């Protein structure tokens, strides 16, 4: 006897033209608003609200046919289109200056360590923010304190400071803090505009409280990149995002988060989106092809999500 199991195909994805009015689900925070979907739309950026992760991933897999195998895992060869992890240093030209960060390739060999080198998201995220700032999509960075979770060697945090952020709180696990702080001080030696601190997602509330008590400013916006690499950490990461969002200054109802992630596994991507949506968080995916920055719009497996926490 032979038993054959058929997995039904996911339902057809909801196209952008069928999406509801963004004002019905993305809430404006009046005077505290600085990242609005209406502003994205005015500047010809396309986006879709994510309601069913399997539907959204099915659409992504259809768009990037050939980069996925039938089991849903990404094929090798799509990684690192924007950086080189064999280099001792990574350089990024941004906003009229050159940023330089040191990588620790030896530390990458340690079990569980992924942040000691630059991943593509760390390059693409600050360049995307620069594009949105110049287009007028995002409000003045000079008014914002941005928290980065999983900052790694700090290229994104450095990029946000170079773009004029009022303050950046760069966080990661304790073993990354020396390299992270060294890179920030190297690029901004006389600047009191950043804080480096340990934030273990499994103990997020306690460590966030410590950071705030030690002087870290409260959060206006969150950024993450290349953090969705393992389904097992989905709950802890979302717990940390929610806890950071709770530190928003008085009067702010919602905290936006820019999440730039790489499609490593369909199951992993769905798992994270399901965890985020289970908390009642609004999730929007920016259609990649509408982004001007070619390193991102032409990237085989990079995705841009916006959360409203």
Classify the secondary structure makeup into a structural class: alpha/beta
Q: Roughly what is the average pLDDT, rounded to an integer?
A: 84
Sheet with most strands: 8 strands, mixed
Q: How many helical elements?
A: 9
Approximate shape: globular
Radius of gyration: 19 Å
- Strand portion, in percent? 15-25%
Total strand segments: 10
Order of helices and strands: HEHEEHEHEHEHEHEHEHE
Low-confidence stretches: 1-17, 68-78
Spatial gap, N to C terminus = 52 Å
Helical content (DSSP H or I, runs of 4+): 25-40%
Keywords:
about 300 residues; two-stranded antiparallel ribbon; disordered N terminus; 9 helices; alpha/beta
Short description:
This protein is α/β, with parallel strands linked by helices. It contains nine helices and ten strands.
Report what the structure shows.
The chain has helices at 37-42, 53-63, 120-135, 155-162, 177-187, 204-213, 234-245, 266-278, 294-297, and strands at residues 47-49, 89-94, 97-102, 145-148, 167-172, 194-198, 221-225, 256-262, 282-286, 302-308. By secondary structure, the protein is α/β, with parallel strands linked by helices. Strands 1-9-10-8-7-4-5-6 form an eight-stranded mixed β-sheet, sandwiched between helices. Strands 2-3 form a two-stranded antiparallel ribbon. It starts with 36 loop residues before the first helix and ends with a strand.
């Amino acid at each position: 006897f032979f038993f054959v199991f058929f997995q039904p195909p996911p339902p057809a994805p909801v196209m952008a033209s069928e999406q509801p009015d963004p004002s019905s689900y993305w809430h404006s925070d009046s005077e505290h608003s600085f990242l609005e979907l209406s502003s994205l739309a005015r500047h010809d950026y396309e986006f879709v609200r994510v309601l069913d992760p399997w539907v959204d991933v099915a659409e992504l897999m259809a768009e990037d046919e050939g980069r996925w195998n039938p089991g849903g895992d990404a094929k090798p060869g799509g990684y690192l289109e924007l950086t080189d992890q064999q280099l001792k240093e990574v350089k990024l030209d941004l906003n009229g200056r050159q940023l330089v960060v040191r990588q620790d390739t030896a530390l990458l060999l340690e079990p569980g360590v992924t942040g000691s080198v630059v991943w593509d998201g760390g390059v693409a995220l600050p360049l995307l923010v620069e594009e949105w700032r110049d287009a007028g999509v995002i409000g003045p960075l000079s008014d914002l304190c941005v928290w980065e979770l999983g900052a790694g060697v700090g290229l994104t945090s450095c990029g946000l400071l170079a773009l004029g952020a009022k303050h950046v709180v760069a966080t990661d696990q304790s073993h990354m803090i020396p390299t992270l702080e060294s890179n920030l001080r190297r690029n901004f030696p006389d600047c009191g505009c950043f804080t480096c601190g340990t934030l273990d997602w499994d103990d997020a509330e306690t460590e966030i409280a410590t950071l705030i008590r030690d002087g870290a400013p409260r959060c206006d916006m969150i950024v993450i990149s290349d953090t969705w690499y393992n389904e097992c950490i989905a709950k802890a990461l979302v717990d940390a995002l929610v806890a950071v969002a709770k530190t928003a200054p008085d009067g702010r109802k919602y905290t936006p988060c820019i999440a730039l992630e790489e499609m490593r596994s369909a199951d992993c991507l769905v798992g994270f989106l399901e965890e985020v949506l289970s908390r009642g968080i609004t999730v929007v995916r920016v259609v990649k092809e509408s982004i001007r920055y070619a390193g991102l719009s032409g990237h085989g497996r990079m995705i841009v999500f916006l959360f409203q926490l």
